C-alpha cells in the first residue's frame, strides 16, 4: 500500500508542477497555447496564471495528504484523503457519463472530449483509488 500511496502522491505532485509551468506561460508538452487550451481545457483560451496556480496548490495539498505528511491531526489527514478521492472519483465518473462540462463549462472541444475519455478520466479514477490506499 505504501508504494501505491507514494506513486499516487508523486503523480499528483507532477501534475501540480505541470500546472505551475502552465501558469508561468509554458505550453509543455504542446507547441502553442491554443493547442494546450484545446487538448487540456477544451476551449480556446488557457486559464489565467492564478487559476493554474490554484489548481497546482490543490494538487500539491492532495499529494501531501496522500503521502500522509504529518501536518495536522491524523483524523484530519484521513478525512482530507477521502475528500481527495471523492473529488477525483467525481471528476472521473462525470467524464465517463459525458458530463465533464458540469465541472468545466465550455469544455466542448472534440479533441479534449476524446482525450478526457481516453486518458484524463481513467487517470482521475486511478488516482482516486490510489489516494485511498492508506485510509484503512
What structural category do the secondary elements indicate? mainly alpha
- Would you report the number of β strands? 0
Q: Percent of residues in helical segments?
A: 55-70%
The rough form would be described as globular
**DSSP strand (E) fraction?**
under 5%
Low-confidence stretches: none
Oligomeric composition of the shown chains: single chain
Mean residue pLDDT: 93
First-last Cα distance: 10 Å
In short:
The chain has helices at 2-23, 33-41, 49-66, 74-96, 110-131. The protein is mostly helical and 136 residues long.
Write the layout of secondary structure elements.
Elements (H helix, E strand, L loop, with lengths): L1 H22 L9 H9 L7 H18 L7 H23 L13 H22 L5
Report on the architecture of this protein.
The chain is built from five helices and no strands. By secondary structure, it is an all-alpha fold. The mean pLDDT is 93. It has one domain. Helix content is 69%, strand content 0%.
Keywords:
136 residues, mainly alpha, 69% helix
Amino acid at each position: 500500500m505504501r508504494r501505491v500511496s507514494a506513486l499516487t502522491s508523486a503523480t499528483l505532485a507532477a501534475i501540480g508542477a505541470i500546472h505551475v509551468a502552465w501558469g508561468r506561460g509554458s505550453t509543455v508538452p504542446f507547441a502553442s497555447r491554443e493547442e494546450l487550451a484545446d487538448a487540456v481545457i477544451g476551449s480556446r483560451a488557457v486559464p489565467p496564471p492564478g487559476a493554474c496556480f490554484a489548481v497546482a496548490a490543490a494538487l500539491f495539498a492532495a499529494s501531501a495528504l496522500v503521502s500522509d505528511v504529518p501536518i495536522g491531526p491524523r483524523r484530519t489527514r484521513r478525512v482530507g484523503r477521502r475528500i481527495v478521492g471523492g473529488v477525483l472519483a467525481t471528476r472521473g465518473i462525470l467524464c465517463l457519463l459525458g458530463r465533464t462540462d458540469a465541472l468545466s463549462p465550455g469544455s466542448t472541444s472534440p479533441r479534449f472530449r476524446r482525450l478526457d475519455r481516453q486518458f484524463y478520466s481513467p487517470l482521475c479514477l486511478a488516482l482516486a483509488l490510489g489516494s485511498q490506499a492508506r485510509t484503512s
